[in-house]
Amino acid sequence: MSRISSLSHPANAGDRAGNFAAVRALSEGLVAPLSEADATLQSMEDASPAKWHLAHTTWFWETFLLRDHAPGYTLYDERWPFVFNSYYEAEGERIDRFSRGMLSRPTLSDLLDWRAHVDAAMVSLLDREDLAPLIDIGLAHEQQHQELLLTDIKHALFQNPLGPAMWDSPPPPAVHTGERGWHRHPGGIARVGHLTGGFAFDNEGPAHRKLFEPFALADRLVTNGEWTEFIADGGYAAARLWLSDGWGWVRDHGITAPLYWRDDEQFTHAGWQSRDPHVPVTHISYYEADAFATWAGFRLPTECEWEVIARGTQGEVAAHDPAAGNQLDRAHAPMPKGGTDLFGDCWQFTRSAYLPYPRFQPAEGAVGEYNGKFMSGQFVLKGASCATPRGHSRASYRNFFYPHQRWQFTGLRLAKDLP
Amino acid sequence: MSRISSLSHPANAGDRAGNFAAVRALSEGLVAPLSEADATLQSMEDASPAKWHLAHTTWFWETFLLRDHAPGYTLYDERWPFVFNSYYEAEGERIDRFSRGMLSRPTLSDLLDWRAHVDAAMVSLLDREDLAPLIDIGLAHEQQHQELLLTDIKHALFQNPLGPAMWDSPPPPAVHTGERGWHRHPGGIARVGHLTGGFAFDNEGPAHRKLFEPFALADRLVTNGEWTEFIADGGYAAARLWLSDGWGWVRDHGITAPLYWRDDEQFTHAGWQSRDPHVPVTHISYYEADAFATWAGFRLPTECEWEVIARGTQGEVAAHDPAAGNQLDRAHAPMPKGGTDLFGDCWQFTRSAYLPYPRFQPAEGAVGEYNGKFMSGQFVLKGASCATPRGHSRASYRNFFYPHQRWQFTGLRLAKDLP
Amino acid sequence: MSRISSLSHPANAGDRAGNFAAVRALSEGLVAPLSEADATLQSMEDASPAKWHLAHTTWFWETFLLRDHAPGYTLYDERWPFVFNSYYEAEGERIDRFSRGMLSRPTLSDLLDWRAHVDAAMVSLLDREDLAPLIDIGLAHEQQHQELLLTDIKHALFQNPLGPAMWDSPPPPAVHTGERGWHRHPGGIARVGHLTGGFAFDNEGPAHRKLFEPFALADRLVTNGEWTEFIADGGYAAARLWLSDGWGWVRDHGITAPLYWRDDEQFTHAGWQSRDPHVPVTHISYYEADAFATWAGFRLPTECEWEVIARGTQGEVAAHDPAAGNQLDRAHAPMPKGGTDLFGDCWQFTRSAYLPYPRFQPAEGAVGEYNGKFMSGQFVLKGASCATPRGHSRASYRNFFYPHQRWQFTGLRLAKDLP
Amino acid sequence: MSRISSLSHPANAGDRAGNFAAVRALSEGLVAPLSEADATLQSMEDASPAKWHLAHTTWFWETFLLRDHAPGYTLYDERWPFVFNSYYEAEGERIDRFSRGMLSRPTLSDLLDWRAHVDAAMVSLLDREDLAPLIDIGLAHEQQHQELLLTDIKHALFQNPLGPAMWDSPPPPAVHTGERGWHRHPGGIARVGHLTGGFAFDNEGPAHRKLFEPFALADRLVTNGEWTEFIADGGYAAARLWLSDGWGWVRDHGITAPLYWRDDEQFTHAGWQSRDPHVPVTHISYYEADAFATWAGFRLPTECEWEVIARGTQGEVAAHDPAAGNQLDRAHAPMPKGGTDLFGDCWQFTRSAYLPYPRFQPAEGAVGEYNGKFMSGQFVLKGASCATPRGHSRASYRNFFYPHQRWQFTGLRLAKDLP
């Protein structure tokens, strides 16, 4: 998912210093329950250590803001950019294959010192209007890494046979929704993509017209209980339900349930917990989502179908209310709780491949280099999960993952054609 | 690529017996220059031995026509369906992982006897109107395997350090086209997908409306000479030109040129031949096509853009004139020769992922099972190559391959946005 | 196993021309039942196609005899040495990784022509006394490849789900031996290694003294029936019986029986045949042999223990009587038949790693380059199998394979300490 | 290397409690310079985290002493044996494939508490004569893990591009030895294996007679400077110098120097340090040692040759003087310093495969289960390294590793035949 891009237009310029402080503080809050060793773990190539996320986001501010725009600024440690740079080829050679999981040094304490140093230096830049676009990108970038930090550490703790918890908080009470209802759409032409003045990544534009046939989108997510029926009905053993690549994946990896399931339990940031049948299923792959939809007699929505419903029911700006929706903060483990919102429980797979919008132009330079770069082999997800920072997502947001990946809070909202 | 599907409407019913005889004879003509050992080779998992193609297509007729519809027909050898069935899970369990390249038995002669037996038995079914749709599928299926047979054996012979030739015929004289011109399209709404009465695979439908922005499609393919400039300019070493997955592929496999290139030569069905700078480049991956387009300052077309230009310039029905366009027959090695036709030189990558059209419904049963099954991770190619049997393709045809595959005659036609 | 080396002393000089003709004819006789396609198959990296064995042995004669010693000889085809050379780095660069299984050309007929050409040219060299050592190596080398040809083609045909037979001949009647008896040895000092005047590979020398403790060697091989008891007793599931590497191999590959076993059948050169409990078990790995011996309360012999018993019971020269012992010829499939001979049923694992004898010196030059080269990671096997050409083995012969390999006719003769 | 076995006879019974305290304290001293995160790192499957070594050795005492012999003892945490057990299949099922590198919990502090608890409980058992053999094994076992802890953490820190140091101490001054001299042996029969009354692992016995030919063993180790000459002479590019498996390893992994070399530096526990040409080369594989010996015109010794020289020059008991020889303690990084001792600089490869001595019988039960288990594919090393705890080794000691492994302090002492 990680990527950086140009933005459209700065929003909330007046709050920029406050936003900066809040975002930076949240990152540090998220690692507060972790030990030095927890924060160093890397469980797979797709994931990074918590410490690395703290450092990489700081590298961003130091490189693209302080180095380039703060007169006289010198790097805190000139060896660190090499280690904490990620995929920005334009920013210079990176070592070919060192494992981020071997970075016991610098220590967590060293990195927190670096963060404080950079935060102090940033103060002088936060009110420069010419830097506002870059700063907004930096904030969005750090928020993306906050979600990755949470899903990566969950995956790492899961590897431990002792099943350690990061938070002791119990899961929030689930919202017990009833029968599945439908948001109906009559078809026709509508505009999609980034429409308003707020911040957006370059891949959300240009806004453009799209033709729709009549369709409907479910008003709630598929639940753990429904998934249990799918399993009981032999869903993981029925080749005819699966995409060809998906069936190969199921057999090669012996997949028989969503990630993190064990008997009637589920691994969470609060350790192993009993599984509530009423909350949305999470940690499924695209292949699983597609097979379930086929089994259920429905289909996945396209990304544009999802988007027009989101706008229609929840509006463009308020789509993902920063003041509500998910419980991510320093004191609680992120857990989906169900309900009818399109945002805040889990990312929802669409059947749309992640491809450029018509007339898409990647931004220039290293900062904007990398959204277009991922436009093969991945699928778009819409919404926001319980681990997405409040206010980070919107109707036009395009998240993307490979069809086999499932360590994010990924779920499924069904769709169907209307006559 | 291999897939089978429902059809729309039978065409040329009067010629069905003649078509059957011609298609069956062409398959056998294609293997005439091969030895028993050549016909047994399998060079990679994506490819199959020539003998297997001969047998698999025969299995199709025996299974879906003779077994199901010819009263009293008994299988020629009841152990063979297990071996020559391909991906039709609905037709029963297949062995997990035997290598088709180990099938020295049955012999080529055994298989030709089987073909003759099946052809004789088929005579009584060829004029049954109720079977016409199935027969048309069988013909299209066998034509697809003719192209695969040719590209698979080319890949197998290429593995031999001695560089053996299958045909001695020299490559045809190239058509030296001039400067790149453009087919322009003003944008607006147009219908795409299978529109007319002829045969089509299920993935070409349903026909539907599509919104276009103004764009242009090049009137000729990118040539070997242009590709040489790309290489000379460091195209394979410039990370910024490549998709992220493509760059990984380039580095993991040490890619520095199209498949089959060596110095100023190119491996062909007629062995190693000098490379003509004026003919279309072939045997490139999606990743390479995309990087080239970026380097050249253009982009790949979408599948629908390609289709509306094909209809506009060449018409729906005559799009791929069976009486012209490519030189595939028993006496000549398939080689692209250039020119301005959209069909007949090579398959052209589009930037469209291979996904279902709106309201797509896979056909019922084993025959129609498998088009939808491949709808993840692949890209659509349009046109037809010099190895495509005459009359097999059309404007709505959707070929598809993974972005790293390049053993087909794959090439590139540039596109650009218009104001 | 394939390797070449210096020899001690030529034997049977008078018969050299006759031996040459007989050995060369046997190679061609072995491929007589094979089709062009059979002869091209390569089922794994350890194996080579039958055609390649025919060609590689011919390359040996052409290179080390004709090229180096026949005045005016020109290579039959100068591109072929590159393709049919094997591991002789000293003979020039070889291509890094082409698959021998892709060599449909040259054809079998081309290669037989080459063989005839080389055989004719060899006539003038066969009575040159200075070349006798090289010729004896060439004969031993071709005999080794005869055995590999047989075991490689068996492995290739086994991959075919149709289970084709190479020979129709039924297995020979088994010799039903009774209770296991023992060859006892009182311990002390004995000489081992190549002692007499006949041909031997360099790794069989120098002859040297060895200290023995009292021990006994079984007078017959372990049988299929005994192996079935091992399986029934949970032998493949009991970690404590296995070497650590062996247990890893069992689990990684899901091993539950010797290679080529299926229900109560066994794959042979004559296809699937019912398995005789009275004949020696074959196609087992070192790991399996060691686990069985542990289970049975015995151990494997050392290579020197085996050798001194072989000398004591059967003599040095007559150890492997050319006129008896195994049934390898053009008309019969090789099958172990049991009995009390140390030679001729199967190769017998010893617990001795394949290492240099004291004061071992590899021979100079390409011909003698490669026995020492394999002296890590492999174990010594003694005896000779039903697929070993008559007269090829002897008491001092050291065959060697990796502990996981089992496509040879490998079996097991138990040993024990005596007080 | 890790293994446990029966012992011969307890030594220094009077000091057992003191030894116990000293050994336990040393383990903790070794991790004192490590952070919580350092101690959690696992850089490869062959290595384990420092924390795991601390825990695994404690698990040994708790399981085989306290659980089995201390009345009323209850496990400190009943979930931990599952996590800190290693290869003792007899002690119950272990999880199939969890990565030890993911064990951020229990924390280092948790584990030190466990150690203290176990140490306190052990007091009552340390003077029980019946347990002396088990205790001596426990001490030897913990000493082995001390060396592994040091070599494993070195390998882990090496992965970090920042090259962190664990100790700041500079390397000790090297001993500059002169020309290579030789220990000569006249040949004949000698006894080898564990002869005296002290502790020994089961694989060192039974003592037995061995026949020797006259030979000589170098009186010092091969140095960094000599290795540089080997490199300069193209040693890593000359196929003829290498074992076949070794040459494959060199090419597959692009090996061009010993592990930890970079330009004229070498990675050490004290970070990157300049490389002294006069000290022994270390961190080489068997393949490299063998190729060097071939290049130099010598050979590797056998394990018995090394042993008889060690006895002759240094005596059995005092072979590895606890009061001298290496500098391993809490304050200094282990570094070879050269000299003429057979012990204390690095482990020395022999050309002997690790196989059972005649009449070897593995000890009964879980404690003694595992020496025989490793007797395939590995080579014996003799001596002791700068990271071996003082007093741990002896002339009969048999260390063993696979021929490609080189993260231990492994080096090379040449041998040659005498007339």
TrEMBL record, chains A, B, C, D:
Pfam families: DinB_2, FGE-sulfatase. The keyword Iron applies. Signal peptide: none annotated. Residues 20-141 form the DinB-like domain. Keywords: Iron, Oxidoreductase. Gene3D superfamilies: paralog of FGE (formylglycine-generating enzyme). Residues 185-416 form the Sulfatase-modifying factor enzyme-like domain. The keyword Oxidoreductase applies. Pathway: Amino-acid biosynthesis; ergothioneine biosynthesis. GO terms for biological process: ergothioneine biosynthetic process. InterPro entries: CTDL_fold, DinB-like, EgtB, Sulfatase_Mod_Factor_Kinase, SUMF_dom, SUMF_sf. NCBIfam families: egtB_TIGR03440. PANTHER family: HERCYNINE OXYGENASE, SULFATASE MODIFYING FACTOR 1, 2. This is Ergothioneine biosynthesis protein EgtB.
